[in-house]
């Protein structure tokens, strides 16, 4: 394989191979110490300490826990490439590698992203390699990609610590992506190696509070208004609305009940639900959002309850983006005998990611590596091939960065020039996102 790479690329691969155990140990440690969004203080510190050990300039406290480490900052005016790694995990306390202190587990594979970024940093920060790069590299640890704990994030918003629930959305707002021309992102996949960004759903998020009236559930239930019953009717109405969602719009609405009462012998005075309302297009999830609101209003009306429906901006749809040929060739060569799938415009995911928000302003090229089994976001997810999940990820990040920034950073410049962003600037993006903020409320009868 070595003959397919130039001298600098061979040096990059050797550095990563020589530090294989360092990369794997980093990944294992993050895997066993997962943290939830906007709470990833230990994970962020580990990333920052690693970058400081490489003598890189580091910027911290971005959107609470985000961090950026800079290589070749003096070359930023020529081209700037960011390698993205996500800090957060999911609340899956039953997982074998769940953190008992946080109830979080990296069933999303974000720890593999971070391992890939730090592994790439080890190679690219080498003086001989860095000298071959005609542009800036930003090693970027981003918070809160998994959109959960909506009430917690709403409190952060109320406390003026953030404005958006998604980490990259918030990073865009505060200008942390202003110095990025092109970004590279990674995701683990039980299906194996893939190159290029596929499209995915966007969404809005909601917190729905149904307001009832407490009463003794056995002695005088007629004096109460059962908020849980009203919420149950809302869920049934929403289920009956599902036949109106077009298949091609890939609509997904998936509520959870976070509060349904306080005591079993008291008529529930409040029920609280969180939900995301997703769709392939802005129009699709806007339509589903209206139908979701209507369903819970109907449930409240039927029981004589009140309601408060708070809608907030979530993520924008992610966009199909093919990888540059130079990056694709590197991935295929590194993969050896393993198959490499190239994404097509027809491939679409019902899931969502805040990478889509960044894509509305600048190109983000995603690649997947395997090494995992089970299902993403499920208790059966696990890493079975650390070489592919962590080490190969580092090699792809590093070789892709080198190829995009060598020879005057021609590939990065071309990628940026050929890209057509959906928004002219972050101010237009912010105005669009803020247009989704809405509260509808009605008192109990």
Q: What is the residue-averaged pLDDT?
A: 96
Percent of residues in helices: 25-40%
Strand segment count: 20
Strands side by side in the biggest sheet: 1-2-6-3-7-17-8-15
What is the strand content?
A: 15-25%
Q: Give the uncertain stretches in residue-range form.
A: none
> What's the end-to-end separation, in Å?
74 Å
Structural class: alpha/beta
Secondary-structure map:
Blueprint: H1 7-18, H2 20-31, H3 41-53, E1 57-62, E2 66-71, E3 80-86, E4 90-91, E5 104-105, H4 110-124, H5 127-130, E6 136-142, H6 150-158, H7 167-173, E7 182-188, E8 193-195, E9 199-200, E10 202-211, H8 227-241, E11 252-253, E12 256-259, E13 270-279, H9 282-303, E14 306-315, H10 325-335, E15 340-342, E16 348-349, H11 355-359, E17 364-369, E18 372-373, E19 382-383, H12 386-405, H13 410-418, H14 426-434, E20 438-442
Parallel strand pairs: 3-6, 3-7, 7-17, 8-15, 9-16
Antiparallel strand pairs: 1-2, 2-6, 4-5, 8-17, 10-13, 10-14, 11-13, 12-13, 14-20, 18-19
Helix pairs in contact: 1-4, 1-12, 2-4, 2-12, 4-12, 8-9, 10-12
């Amino acid at each position: 394989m070595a003959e397919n790479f130039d001298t600098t690329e061979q040096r990059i691969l050797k550095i990563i191979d020589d530090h294989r155990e360092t990369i794997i140990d980093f990944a294992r440690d993050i895997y066993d110490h997962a943290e939830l969004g906007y709470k990833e203080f230990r994970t962020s510190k580990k990333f920052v300490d690693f970058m400081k050990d490489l003598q890189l300039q580091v910027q911290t406290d971005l959107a609470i826990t985000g961090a950026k480490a800079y290589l070749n900052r003096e070359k930023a005016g020529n081209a700037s490439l960011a390698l993205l790694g996500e800090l957060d995990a999911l609340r899956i306390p039953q997982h074998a590698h769940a953190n008992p202190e946080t109830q979080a587990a990296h069933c999303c594979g974000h720890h593999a992203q971070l391992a890939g970024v730090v592994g790439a940093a080890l190679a690219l920060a080498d003086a001989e390699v860095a000298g071959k790069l005609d542009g800036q590299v930003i090693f970027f640890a981003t918070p809160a990609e998994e959109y959960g704990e909506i009430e917690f994030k709403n409190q952060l918003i109320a406390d003026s610590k953030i404005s958006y629930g998604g980490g990259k959305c918030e990073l865009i707002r505060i200008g942390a992506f202003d110095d990025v021309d092109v970004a590279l992102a990674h995701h683990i996949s039980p299906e194996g190696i893939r190159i290029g960004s596929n499209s995915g759903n966007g969404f809005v998020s909601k917190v729905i509070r149904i307001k009832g009236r407490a009463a003794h559930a056995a002695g005088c239930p007629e004096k109460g208004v059962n908020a849980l019953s009203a919420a149950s009717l809302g869920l049934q109405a929403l289920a009956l609305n599902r036949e109106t969602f077009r298949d091609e719009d890939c609509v997904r609405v998936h509520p959870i009940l976070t509060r349904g009462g306080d005591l079993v012998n008291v008529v529930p005075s409040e029920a609280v639900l969180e939900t995301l309302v997703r769709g392939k297009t802005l129009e699709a999830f806007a339509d589903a959002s209206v139908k979701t609101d209507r369903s819970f209003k109907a449930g409240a009306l039927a029981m004589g309850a009140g309601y408060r429906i708070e809608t907030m901006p979530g993520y924008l749809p992610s966009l199909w983006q093919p990888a540059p040929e130079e990056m694709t060739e590197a991935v295929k060569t590194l993969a050896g005998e393993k198959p490499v799938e190239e994404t097509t415009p027809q491939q679409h995911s019902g899931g969502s990611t805040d990478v889509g928000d960044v894509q509305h302003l600048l190109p983000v090229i995603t690649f997947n590596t395997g090494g995992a089994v089970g299902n993403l976001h499920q208790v059966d997810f696990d890493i079975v091939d650390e070489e592919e999940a962590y080490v190969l990820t580092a090699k792809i990040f590093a070789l892709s960065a080198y190829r995009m920034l060598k020879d005057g950073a021609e590939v990065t410049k071309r990628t940026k020039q050929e890209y057509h962003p959906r928004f002219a600037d972050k101010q237009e993006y912010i105005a669009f996102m803020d247009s989704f903020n809405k509260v509808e409320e009605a008192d109990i009868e």
